[in-house]
Specification:
The chain is of the alpha/beta class. The protein is 35% helix and 20% strand. It contains six helices and seven strands; from the N terminus they run E-H-E-E-E-H-E-E-H-E-H-H-H. The protein has a seven-stranded mixed beta sheet with strand order 2-3-4-1-5-7-6, with helices on both faces. The chain has one domain (9-199): Rossmann fold, CATH 3.40.50.1470.
């Protein structure tokens, strides 16, 4: 055990609406949907939290999953409302998001740090008045590293190509496999297991 509190709130980041469902920026939503399925929970709209919310129990402890209904750059509105209502600390929150600085097929779990220009992270950090929440960074690549002429804004709001999607889906499966460790506070084990797959 790491001595750190286990995750009690998981927030997947994305943009609402069917036109964004398949876009790279919604990778956090994709994983949140799978985690809810794994925990036997279903999302329902909770306007007080500006989110779709799913509630589950694991080993007798409650776990809340959320997908904000605001656009990405206002994700802190949902995150802040949920954290306050459930009386959690930032250290008990995991934010799942797409990451330009990692290639498709790569993933990193870390606590704290900057937002690296990610508007969702920036807004949550502001809402929490703390950077100490956990981040699960799902690699989507960068248009430059993938040899694409798109600017970043267009890139994240488009769907990944088939080979990239296959890599992202493999990462989502790896994240699902370590979720029980995260919900028990076994961060060292989760990090080792997740990051091992990046070497493949």
């Amino acid at each position: 055990m790491s001595g750190k509190p286990p995750i009690r709130l998981i927030i997947g980041l994305g943009n609402p609406g069917p036109q964004y469902e398949a876009t790279r920026h919604n990778a956090g939503f994709w994983l949140a949907d799978h985690l809810a399925d794994d925990l036997g929970a279903a999302f329902s709209l909770e306007k007080a939290f500006f989110s779709w919310v799913a509630k589950a129990r694991l080993a007798g402890e409650s776990v809340v999953l959320a997908k904000p209904t605001t656009f990405m750059n206002r994700s802190g509105q949902a995150a802040g409302a949920l954290m306050r209502f459930y009386k959690l600390t930032p250290e008990q929150v995991l934010v799942i998001h797409d990451e330009l600085d990692l290639l498709p097929g790569q993933v990193k779990l870390k606590q704290g740090g900057g937002h690296a220009g990610h508007n969702g992270l920036r807004d949550i950090q502001s809402a929490f008045s703390s950077p100490n929440f956990w981040r699960l960074r799902i690699g989507i690549g960068h248009p430059r590293t993938l040899g694409l002429a798109q600017d970043v804004a267009a890139f994240v709001l488009n769907a990944p190509r088939r080979e990239e999607l296959n890599e992202i889906e493999a990462v989502i499966d790896r994240c699902r496999a370590v979720a029980p460790a995260l919900l028990k506070g076994e961060y060292d084990q989760a990090v080792a297991q997740l990051h091992e797959g990046n070497r493949g």
